[in-house]
Design goal:
By secondary structure, the protein is an alpha+beta fold. The chain has 18 helices and 23 strands. The protein is about 35% helix and about 20% strand. The strands form seven sheets. A seven-stranded mixed sheet has the order 17-18-16-15-21-22-23, with helices on both faces. Strands 3-2-1-5-14-13 form a six-stranded mixed sheet. Strands 4-7 form a two-stranded antiparallel ribbon. Keywords: ATP-binding, Carbohydrate metabolism, Kinase, Nucleotide-binding, Transferase, Xylose metabolism. This is Xylulose kinase.
Amino acid sequence: MFIGLDLGTSGVRALLVDGGGAVVGDAATGLGASRPHPGWSEQDPADWIAAARAALRELAQTFPDHIAALRGIGLSGQMHGATLLDDRGAVLRPAILWNDTRSHEQAARLDAAPRVRALSGNIVFPGFTAPKLLWVAETEPDTFASISKVLLPKDYLSYWLTGRAVSDMSDSAGTAWLDTAARDWSDDLLAASGMRRDQMPALMEGTGVAGPLRGDLARDLGLPGDVQVVIGGGDNAAAACGVGALDEGDGFVSLGTSGVLLAARDGFAPKPDSAVHTFCHAVPERWYQMGVILSATDSLNWLAGITGQTPAELTAGLGELRAPGRLRFLPYLSGERTPHNDSAVRGAFTGLDIAHGRDDLTRAVLEGVCFALRDNLEALRSTGAGLQRVLAIGGGARSRYWCELLACALDLPVDLPEKGELGAALGAARLAICGVTGAAPADVMTRPPVAETLQPRPDLRDAFAEAHAGFAAAYPALKAMPGET
C-alpha cells in the first residue's frame, strides 16, 4: 500500500492506493490563508502539520488492515512558498505563498539581472521563491539573518516526516534558484538574491527516497515503522504523473482555483519572454511547460459570492452553447502570469448593457477564463510545444458547458476522463510506488480512460476566433489602469 499526501492551498489530502494504483480510500483536512495586507497571502506551517497529521491518522483508523501493509508515502504540494527555518529547525515567520505578490519590485529587479532568465529558463514572477527572500532581506533583515534553511511547502512536510531537508527538481524549478537545464542549484542565481547553497535542501528526482518515516512519528500516526517517504513533486508535475502526461505531446488543462495548460516535453526548450513556465518534471530526464492564469474557478466563485448564488446555480440556466456575445470578462482579479506577467492589472467586464442579466455575466466569466487559456495555448506553441488535444481536470471540469467552451476557445479536442481519481495526490502516490519498488514511471503513470471527447464546433470557429481577438485587444487598455497592489 502507498499514500499520496498532497498539500494544497485550501487543504491537505491523503490518498491511499494499492500497489497497482487503485484507490482504497482518502482523507482530507481544510486549510485557510491569512491576507494581512493587500497582495499578501500567508499560512502557518504548523497548520500544514496539523492537517497532515489529521488526514494520516484518519486513514490509519479507517483502513487499519490496509495501513498495516503501507510501504511508502509520496508528496506533492503547492509550489513557490517560502518556509524559513533557523538553525534549530524552527519556523521563523509565516510561509509566504505562491499567490502572494508583495515582492513584485524585487521580482522585476531579479528578472533584469544578468543571466537569470538564461539559467532558470523562466521570467522571475512575483510568486516565485527568490524574490520573496529578497523582500525578507530588505524589510525583515533580522529574520533574513537567522535563516538556516529555506524549504518549499511539501518539503517542510518531508522534513517533519523524516527530519531531513530534501527537495525535488520539479518543485525547486519554481524558486528561480535552479539551473533548470542542469537540474541543480545555481550559485549565481542564489547569489542574486543573497542566498547560499548551504541554505538549500539536498536535491533528488521526484522518485527519490527522502528517508524513512521517523519512528516516533510512525507510532503517533498509527503507521508501520518501515515506511519510506518519497519526495514527490510540485503540484502540477505530480498532477501530470497522475494523468500520465510524461512524453512530448501529452498535456492537460486544469480548471482549479488557478488555471493551468500543461505540456510535457522530452527536452529543455525555454522561452522566458513568452511568460511560459519551463520546469523540470518529477520524473528523470523530462521537463514540462505550462501557462498559468491566476483566477479560473476563482473567477466563478467571485461572481457567485457577489450574486449570492452557488457556482452550480449560476451555470444551471446557461442552456446550449452558443457564439460569444459582445460582453467580455477579463479574469485578472489577482493580476496575471501567462502571457502578461502583470501583478498590477485587474479584471473587468466590457460591453456591459442594461439588458444583460445574471446568465450573461456568468457566460462571460466562463468565456473569459477560456480565452485567457487560449492566450496560454498560443504562448506554449511559441516554444514549440505541440499540443493536439488536452485532458480536462480540476473542479471546473465537472461543468460540461465549461468544457464545451474550452474545446471551442482552444480549437482543440478536449478529453473528459471517466470518473475516478486524478490529479496531484494520485501522482504523489504513483511517485511513491516508483520510488519504493523501482518500477518504471511509464509503467505506473498511465493515462486514464476517456469517457468522451468534446470536439470544437466548426460552425462556431469564426465566432470564437473573433471573440478571442476582442478579448486580447482589451488587455492594453486595462494595463493603462493598474489596480492597487
